[in-house]
Amino acid sequence: MRDTPAGGQEPYMRIGAVARLLGVHPRTLRLYEERGLVLPERVRGQRRYTSADVRWLKCVRSLIHERGYGIDAIIKLLDFTPCWELKDCPEKV
Questions:
Q1: Torsion angle, CA of 79/45/28/62, rounded to 10 degrees?
Q2: What is the pTM of this model?
Q3: What is the pLDDT along the chain (93 residues), one digit of tens a residue?
């Protein structure tokens, strides 16, 4: 179920495979995307998740189910986290 993107080394996973891996319904992943918690790449209209996306989604699931945070709380926490701690962007951003 994995495909390799053209010219890339990172394998992608489709939404169904990620949902099974995380033990959630694909609709849950679509909800996370709608709320801005994950932005999977689109290839011919299909969502494709990287291993980094899956690691992040595991973290989100842990925050929700083990720590008791809601999606809105996670979004607020991310507002307080500088982007350079999450990805490579200049500190001035």
A1: -50
A2: 0.75
A3: 444 555 555 779 999 999 999 999 999 999 999 999 999 999 899 999 999 999 999 999 999 999 999 999 999 988 877 665 655 555 554
